Amino acid sequence: MTTITLPETSAADSLKNQPLTPGQLIWRRFRKHKAALFALGGMVVLLLYIWLGGLVFSRGICAPTGEFLIAEAYANCNDTAQKLQPPSREHPFGTDTIGRDILARTIYGGQISLTIGIFAVIVEVVVGVLVGAVAGYFGGWVDDFLMRITEAMLIIPSLFLLIVLSKAIGGSVPEIHFLGRTFSGSVVVIILVIGFTSWMYLARIVRANVLSLKEMDYISASRALGVSDARIIFKHLLPNTIAPIIVSSTLGVANAITSEAYVSFLGLGVQTPTASWGNMLDSAVKYLQSAPWLWLFPGMMIMLTVLCINFIGDGLRDALDPRSARNI
Question: Residue 162 and residue 22: Cα distance in Å, rounded?
Answer without folding.
Answer: 40
